[in-house]
Write a structure and sequence with these properties.
By secondary structure, this protein is α/β, with parallel strands linked by helices. 31% of the residues lie in helices and 19% in strands. It is built from six helices and eight strands, in the order βββαβααβαββαβα. The chain has an eight-stranded mixed β-sheet with strand order 1-2-4-3-5-6-7-8, with helices on both faces. A hairpin with a 2-residue loop joins strand 1 and strand 2. The protein is globular, with a radius of gyration of 17 Å. The chain starts with 20 loop residues before the first strand and ends with a helix.
């Protein structure tokens, strides 16, 4: 049986009252939060395996919107069930076959079209966590319409095509993430140095486990809080630098 890769307990979460609203875009539902003023800058947030309804991801959407971006988290699972805390890890590989983070291109295009045509967005960035981090890595290799990306603890493995990024991308990792080995991060760094022609950054946050950067303030442990806040500030700073 596969070890549980999430050291945080997704069941013990405080409730979150969202600031945004839900919309239907073609075949996709999405959660949107807008700043109080007009902007032509937008950010797409890609959820982790727990899906677009998960309180932590909606908190992140609201947080980014608070920095002045139209922020949207589409349901990249297209109405199918996200992974649930009651599911068995033995079934995870099969679940992943039906929820492939490398097969998000169509949905990303639908959302990009909506942001450009309905929201007046000119510059669009993307941020993703875990499953979403892999999706961001994939999209930054394939979609030139995304001005900048932040991939949090999601790494594309077993592919030689993963280094030729089209636009600036920032990779965030936790030092104690046992789903991603240090060797994989080192390899990513070496290969990006070799092949990548755009700005990129890799940063590893001390003592942090998988999923650390999406916790709401009241769910953070005091020792982790400075690193979580730093990672979020770094994420926003990267977006602000390019968008």
């Amino acid at each position: 049986q596969m070890a549980d890769p999430f050291l945080y307990d997704t069941g013990e979460r405080s409730h979150y009252g969202c600031l945004g609203h839900e919309v239907q875009i073609e075949h996709i539902k999405a959660y949107v939060c807008r700043p109080s003023f007009f902007t032509d800058k937008a950010v797409i947030v890609i959820h982790d395996i727990f899906g677009w309804l998960f309180p932590d991801i909606r908190y992140i959407v609201d947080l980014i919107a608070g920095h002045g971006y139209i922020t949207i988290c589409p349901d990249f699972f297209k109405g199918t069930d996200p992974w649930k805390t009651t599911d068995h890890w033995a079934d995870f590989a099969d679940w992943m076959k039906d929820h492939d983070p490398m097969k998000v291109d169509k949905e990303a295009d639908v959302v990009l079209k909506y942001l450009k045509e309905q929201c007046g967005a000119e510059k669009i960035g993307i941020v993703g966590f875990s499953w979403g981090g892999m999706a961001v890595h994939h999209l930054m290799l394939n979609n030139p319409h995304l001005t900048a990306g932040v991939s949090l603890y999601g790494i594309i493995r077993d592919s030689e095509e993963r280094y030729n990024l089209l636009n600036p991308t920032f990779f965030i990792f936790g030092e104690k993430d046992h789903t991603i080995s240090y060797d994989q991060i080192t390899l990513l760094e070496e290969k990006l140095k070799q092949y990548c022609k755009v700005a990129y950054k890799i940063k590893v946050y001390p003592g942090q486990v998988h999923g650390f950067a999406q916790l709401k303030p009241e769910d953070m442990k005091p020792d982790d809080k400075p690193y979580i806040e730093e990672a979020r500030k770094d994420m926003i700073d990267w977006i602000k630098m390019f968008i």
